[in-house]
């Protein structure tokens, strides 16, 4: 549920951008849930409608791991009862951290606040864990600062690290940090039907402009629309052999003919199969797509038998 910001009852607020809602973020939410249950409070996430760099330094703003709708769906699925989305503007950026916390307290009966070890807020990022703790002591709410969550190899889990892994084709590493298979969602739109002409019909998923697309190439995936799901293979990129002139997300169902035009759909990326490349002929491309299909089918079978677990 998106909160209107109106005054509510006892609340535990989880603070952060939470892009991707990865395993580090899930630890914030887990600890927030424990506090909310103990204090008889609602669990609320307080976040922004965009990455702050979109306003402060647009040239350096990263693509996001989740759209606003994807993030809301994920948070709701984790038991978050309220989501307070604050529009991030130049005025927001100039808010003093003490004023930010005052506004937070005025919106609800703040019982506790949970934030990550590196959370900063307010003008010039002056607000930090120490200031949050001090405000909690002064105004009578509990503060929980969560240390970094690391992988088994000791790497700190962060949205930045996940973006880097996706962009260099390390889907397996990114999915381990996310705790789920990276997903791309959008509306299925009409394309040039080039896949149909060569025997591999695809759903052309139109994504939001700010969504991060991983390294261009071919992936084994799971296609979903509504309550339906199909194993599939998806090409992300510029289609150099049959170029369309733009970056596309073209998903092909392995065992079914599906018509998703005009519907919402998503693909969950399970395995990076190969980089995108230009083939010398349509026949060579068709042969490679058939090999991609077989490899994706092998991954599907391995997952069903439990021999090759995918996040």
Structure overview:
This protein has two domains: 8-146, HUPs (Rossmann fold, 3-Layer(aba) Sandwich), CATH 3.40.50; 182-305, Riboflavin kinase-like (Elongation Factor Tu (Ef-tu), domain 3). It is 33% helix and 26% strand. The chain has ten helices and eleven strands. It has helices at 23-39, 53-56, 68-77, 90-93, 97-107, 129-139, 159-167, 171-178, 194-197, 282-305; strands spanning 8-15, 42-48, 82-86, 108-116, 142-146, 183-189, 203-206, 217-225, 228-237, 248-253, 264-275. The strands form two sheets. Strands 6-7-10-9-8-11 form a six-stranded antiparallel beta barrel. The chain has a five-stranded parallel sheet with strand order 3-2-1-4-5, with helices on both faces. It starts with 7 loop residues before the first strand and ends in a 6-residue tail after the last helix.
- Quaternary: single chain
- Major sheet size, sense and barrel closure: 6 strands, antiparallel, barrel
What is the rounded distance between the termini? 27 Å
Can you tell me the CATH topology of the largest domain?
Answer: Rossmann fold
Q: Numbering strands along the chain, what is their spatial order in the largest sheet? A: 6-7-10-9-8-11
Total strand segments: 11
Query: What's the shape?
Result: elongated
For the record, the CATH architecture of the largest domain stands as 3-Layer(aba) Sandwich
Provide the number of structural domains: 2
- Helices and strands, in order, run as EHEHHEHHEHEHHEHEEEEEH
């Amino acid at each position: 549920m998106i909160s209107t910001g109106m005054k509510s009852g006892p609340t535990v607020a989880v603070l952060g951008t939470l892009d991707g809602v990865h395993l580090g973020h899930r630890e914030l939410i887990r600890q927030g849930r424990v506090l909310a249950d103990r204090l008889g409070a609602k669990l609320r996430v307080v976040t922004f409608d965009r990455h702050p760099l979109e306003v402060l330094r647009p040239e350096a703003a990263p693509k996001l791991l989740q759209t606003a709708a994807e993030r809301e769906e994920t948070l709701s699925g984790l038991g978050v009862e309220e989501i307070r989305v604050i529009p991030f503007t130049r005025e927001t950026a100039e808010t003093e951290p003490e004023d930010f916390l005052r506004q937070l307290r005025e919106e609800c009966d703040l019982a506790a606040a949970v934030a990550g070890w590196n959370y900063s807020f307010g003008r010039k990022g002056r607000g930090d864990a120490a200031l949050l703790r001090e405000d909690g002591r002064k105004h009578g709410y509990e503060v929980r600062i969560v240390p970094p969550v690391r992988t088994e190899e000791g790497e700190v889990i962060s949205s930045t690290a996940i973006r880097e892994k996706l962009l260099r084709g390390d889907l397996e590493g990114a999915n381990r940090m996310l705790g789920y298979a990276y997903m791309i969602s959008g509306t299925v739109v009409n394309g040039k039907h080039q896949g149909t002409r060569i025997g591999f019909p695809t759903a052309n998923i139109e994504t939001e402009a700010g969504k991060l697309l991983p390294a261009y190439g071919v992936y084994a995936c799971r296609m979903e629309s509504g309550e339906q799901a199909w194993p599939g293979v998806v090409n992300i990129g510029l289609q150099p052999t049959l170029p369309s002139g733009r970056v596309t997300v073209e998903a092909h169902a392995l065992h079914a003919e599906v018509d998703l035009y005009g519907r919402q759909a998503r693909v969950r990326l399970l395995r990076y199969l190969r980089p995108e490349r230009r083939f010398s002929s349509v026949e060579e491309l068709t042969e490679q797509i058939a090999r991609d299909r077989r490899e994706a089918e092998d991954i599907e079978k391995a997952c069903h038998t439990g021999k090759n677990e995918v996040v």
